């Protein structure tokens, strides 16, 4: 048992969908969240820049006394996870392996579509992890760079979002996709729209929920779960503050308005 | 006469629409362009962060020996221009005054719509400059945060872009807009789509063209124009490199593919 907080970071506030999933599953855990809003988005940046930013994010969380870290950012998980794990001496979990596990948990899964930012797709991290486990799998990748901005506008079922989804998904549907992996922490908010568009025959796998489940198992195996008598705290740090970020944060967390603290990384 | 280069900067590559307009009008000028792609977009960041970034951008350009600077970024012009002018001893021009001048050049202009990023609208810089000159003007402001991402995808007449434009423009049309000010350097690429959507009765004013005209007048008045025998050079610096940025840069400049150099600001 260990009542130190968990550290969770993302390039922005999208990773709060992971915080929400973790709180739902592990309500006794304290959490320190860092959103690097001054430098978002990571998805369009180069791998070396992403690794440098992720390293700074992790150092900040370690300075706050966290017991384990979740990289709640697909781009950073793709490009920086192994470097972070090599550099630091505490458990660091990404969002990719849990998503891949969940997609393959159904043995009927034959044709997996992946939607994500351009950076995540270009990293081939999901494609690589899926192919290693199931060489016969058909993997259909689709960069969907406009979905995160559309979600940040709360245009969850706006005609522009439907038109963008149709353009992104049609090539995957044409090739018989049976499972769609939502490889960006923003995308869980699109699940109702996607269910309506795709119907019941296509399975949706989202990285926030699957990451929380993986974290629970991992913490339990290391005896790092917080005791039931722990009074959980939640600290929200952002590298740049704005009303818009606080509004978005509350929406991603599905919570009342909350106050963020500004932090400078160096 | 002065053959030193002009410095032009933006948060990303959108400001290259200004470079294109300057080259069309002033073909003898050498240009050093800086795009702060590692930290884009500025539009969602706080005023103090934007001022700090803009100061670093200007220092870099000065270190390259420029004779004058264009802030080819509406967000930075809105929040940082007066601080930059106070801190530095060379001509620094923004994109706001030229756009306002051009909008008001037609005395028939009564109802001006402004579309821009959230940061530019929130700054009220355009609204303020317009109202100072023409207190009777009806000013209709509309944040349009998704247009820049849609343009970066080259979805210039995609159904998603049309749907977004309809949502953004309908409230302005309902209030009788006669002039639409495109207050973001990305937006000149949408002119054909906007002309189709809005018809011939609504005048479009874009900040790239108007800024180049203003620059010409200003340089001439200070005797800083390059001599006709100058062999112009063009240097493109970005704080983060990616194929995507080089592709976009060529598209905004309407030029063949070009090579950017990476620079770190500090």
Proportion of residues in extended strands of chain A: 15-25%
What top-tier CATH class of the largest domain in chain A fits best? Alpha Beta
Structural domain count of chain A: 2
The CATH topology name of the largest domain in chain A reads Rossmann fold
Note the main sheet of chain A.
6 strands, parallel
Most residues in contact: chain pair = A-B, 28 and 28 residues
What strand order characterises the main sheet of chain A?
4-3-1-2-9-10
CATH architecture of the largest domain in chain A: 3-Layer(aba) Sandwich
Global geometry of chain A: globular
Which whole number gives the mean pLDDT of chain A?
A: 94
Tally the helices of chain A. Answer: 11
Poorly predicted ranges of chain A:
none
Q: What is the subunit organization of this protein?
A: homodimer
Q: What is the N-to-C order of secondary-structure elements of chain A (H for helix, E for strand)?
A: EHEHEHEHEHHEHHEHEHEHE
Q: How many β-strand runs of chain A? A: 10
Classify the secondary structure makeup of chain A into a structural class. Answer: alpha/beta
Helix content of chain A: 40-55%
- Tell me the distance between the termini of chain A: 32 Å
Query: What integer value in Å does the Rg of chain A equal?
Result: 18 Å
């Amino acid at each position: 048992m260990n009542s130190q907080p968990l550290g969770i970071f993302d390039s922005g506030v999208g990773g709060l969908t992971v915080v929400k999933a973790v709180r739902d599953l592990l309500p006794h855990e304290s959490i320190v969240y860092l959103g690097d809003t001054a430098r978002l988005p990571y998805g369009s940046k180069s791998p070396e820049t992403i690794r440098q930013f992720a390293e700074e994010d992790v150092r900040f969380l370690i300075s706050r006394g966290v017991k384990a870290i979740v990289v709640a950012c697909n781009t950073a998980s793709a490009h920086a996870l192994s470097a972070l794990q090599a550099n630091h001496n505490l458990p660091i979990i990404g969002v990719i392996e849990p998503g891949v596990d969940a997609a393959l948990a159904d043995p009927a899964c034959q044709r997996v579509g992946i939607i994500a930012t351009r950076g995540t797709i270009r990293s081939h991290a999901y494609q690589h992890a899926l192919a290693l486990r199931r060489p016969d799998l058909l993997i259909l990748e689709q960069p969907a760079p406009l979905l995160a901005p559309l979600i940040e506008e709360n245009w969850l079922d706006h005609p522009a979002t439907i038109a963008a989804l149709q353009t992104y998904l049609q090539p995957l549907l044409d090739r018989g996709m049976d499972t769609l992996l939502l490889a960006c922490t923003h995308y869980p908010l699109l699940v109702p729209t996607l269910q309506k568009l795709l119907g019941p025959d296509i399975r949706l796998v989202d990285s926030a929920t699957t990451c929380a489940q993986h974290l629970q198992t991992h913490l339990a195996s290391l005896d790092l779960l917080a005791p039931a008598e722990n009074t959980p705290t939640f600290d929200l740090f952002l590298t740049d503050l704005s009303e818009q970020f606080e509004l978005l944060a509350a929406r991603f967390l599905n919570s009342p308005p909350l106050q963020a603290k500004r932090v400078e990384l160096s």
